[in-house]
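Q: Got a minute? One more chain.
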Amino acid sequence: MIHPEFPDTFWSFKHALKFIRKKAAPAPLGLLTIAAMLPREWPKKLVDMNVTKLTENDLAWADCAFIGAWSLQRESARQIIAACKEVGLPIVAGGPLFTSEFDQFEAVDHFVLNEAELTLPPFLGDLENGCAELIYENFEFCDIRKNTCSMWELANFNHYASMSVQFSRGLPVQL
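A: Always. Here it is, folded:
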């Protein structure tokens, strides 16, 4: 699970966080939630590039890289993708950046878009059967009351100034 770095903008809180000796504002809730939806037997690790660097050892350890990003993290996401491709690591991408700009990321192997609760299970089934496709998307809304709890144990709370709790998502109204 790789969370790209935020550039030095309001969203990084980079300069303010120094006053409280933290490296990032909240932990990457989206990736921690996705981690909880993956098969239990898969070993999982979080590399939040806002608190640590992505190392060669991290890439060598992994069988696959899951990347979730906002559009603001575009450049860091590109660097992560290039590093993964350099070592032949398959990439699964999702989140707002890839949902709106998946056609700009030709090196990504699989896109799991929109509501992962609906698109991740078919992807995992196809992956297990050796026939995973490029794009998985669904335009329905999921019932987040059925979500599994995020894998908080992957995050080191000492690095974060705050923690998010998911109680709703998006705008569940069709306009």
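A: The longest strand covers residues 65-68.
Q: Perfect, thanks.
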